[in-house]
Amino acid sequence: YMKYQHENDTNKFVELFSEFTGISKKKLIDFLKDNTVHNLLNHPFSLQGITEKQREKIESLKILNKLCRNFEIFKEKYALVSTDTCGEYHVNLFKNKDKESFVLTLADSQNNVIKSITVQQGTINESPVYPREIVKLALMYDACQVFLAHNHPGGSLMPSNSDIEITKRISAALRTVNIPVRDHIIVSDDKFYSFVEHGLSHHFVSSVFEKPSAYKSVRDKISEAKKKAAKQDNAKNHNHKSIDKER
Fold it and tell me: What contacts 203, CB < 8 A, 6 or more positions away?
């Protein structure tokens, strides 16, 4: 009789999970017959007969999993230098969240993350985000720039009118203290939408900010690469013409 690796991994998971949380192996095995590990971590209330302390242990495992993921993506500091790194960072931040949340990520002048703070739970329409609170937090943590992010659990990645409106309002408030909004990221499952990458940066970028950020969108990088290639082609053509004239 040969056990497949998935079954071996499941048994090992049950053993370690039981040891950490105090939930019996039998209860876990019975639960996993009709459910997944994902449900166990994200919907612990569906596991009947466990204590509040055991639920807190499960929550600790979820946090540990997020931290490990961030350490895999970033080496020493969380540096949001592109839409890809910014998107990945916030996708991981919202992982396993089944409620909509609005997050403010504060960064220094080199795009290193100082702190990410959940400033609101619930949809923007139902639970308004107050720009003045955003300004207070940005000043408190001495941020040079900020990134906005929120999730659409199980929904579309496309920004709503409310998403665009709150981005404008927060940007206008931060402009009074000369702190730029660099991007607004929307997360749904393992995907993300960047305002900058999709050409919506005009909703928050202002010429009042003198120092450009190191943050570059994928679109910016492609544009720069095309311009560089065009210059090289022009230089080659010019050289060829000069040689032809000499001949």
Answer: 164, 167, 168, 171, 195
